[in-house]
Amino acid sequence: MSSNNDLFKVLSEEGVLISFRMGFYRGRKKLRPDDVGLPNTDEVKKQISLGQARLLSLETLSPMSTIESRTRSYLDSNTFPFLGGMAKFAHNSKLKELQSTLDSYREAFHEARDKFGEDYAELIDSSVATWKELAPQICKLDPDTVAEAIRESFPSRADALARFHFSVNYFNIAVPENIEAAKLADAANASEVYEARQRACKDAQSQIRSEAHNFAQECVLTLRKQTRDLCVDVLAQVKASNDGAGVNQKTLNRLTNFMDHFKTMNFMGDTQMGSVLDTARKELLEMSAADYRKGKGKVTDLTKGLEALGAEAAKLVAADISDLVSTFGGSGKRKLT
Predict the structure, then answer these.
(1) What is the sign, positive or negative, of the torsion defined by CA atoms of 166, 172, 173, 178?
(2) Backbone phi and psi for residue 248, each to the nearest 5 degrees, phi listed first
(3) Which of 43, 142, 151, 225 is the most exposed, having the fewest neighbouring CB atoms within 10 Å of its CB?
C-alpha cells in the first residue's frame, strides 16, 4: 500500500483533473401515435415504437456538434482518462496549452449559441414549412395539423438557449478525508451516520489509491500503443502510394508531430519508448519526402525503418512496466514538478 500511496502523492503533484460538459438544444420531439395518425392507445404504444422527429436539420446543429466533437477529440489526445473516464488527467506541462485551447472552443461555442438565438424564429418557420411539405408522404394527417404540432413542439427561445452550456472544471487529485465525529454531534442518529461516513471515506481512499497504479500503467501503455498503431497506419500509406514513389511530406510530418506529442505527454518518464523514437527521428526523418522519392532505395529504407519501429513499439507494449511505475511513484526517487 505504501507504494500506491507514494504514487498517488506524485500524481497529485504532477497534474490536475479536468471535467468537461457541453450541451445544446438538439431539436428533437418524441413521436406519439397520434402524431402520425394512429390511435394514441396503450395497445398501440405497446406494439409500436415511433422514435423521434428531427425538428432542426443536421446542418443547423452542425456548428455546435463540430465544436463538441473537436473539444472531446482534443481532450482525448492531450489527457489521460482517470478512474474509468470519470475525469481527464492533465499533466502540468500541458495545462497552459489546454486552458488556452479550451477557452477558444468555449468562445466559438458561445458565438454559435448567439447565432442560433438570433436565427431561432426563422429556424422554426423553416422547420414548420419542411414538415408541412413532407406530411402527405409520412402520415395521413392534414398537413396544417402536422405543421401546427411541429410549431408547438419548439420551446421558447429562452428555454432553448437555457439548454446551451459549455463548462470546464479543474480539480486537484485528492481522496476524501475522514470526518470528525464532533461535526455530527447534533445530527440525528449521529453514531450511525459517523460510522457510515468513515467507511465510505476509507473505501474511497483504498479504491483511488489502488487505481493510481492501474492509471499509471495505462498512461505508459497508451503512448506505446499509439506509437505501434501509427507505424502500422503510416506504413500502409507508404506502401499504398505507388510502391512508395508517392511518399509525401504530410505523411512524414505525422511521424514528426507524434514524436513531439510523445515528449509532452510522457510525464511518466518512459525512457525506453522515448529512446526508440529519438533514434527513429534521426534515422527516418532527416530526409524530406522529396529526397525519399529521388533517392534510390531510400523508400525501402523508410519502409524497413517503420517496420522496425512498429515491431519495437509492439514489443514494449507487451513488456513488464512495473519497474517504471515503481520508479515514478517511489518516494524520494524523483523530483516532483
Answers:
(1) negative
(2) -115, 165
(3) 43
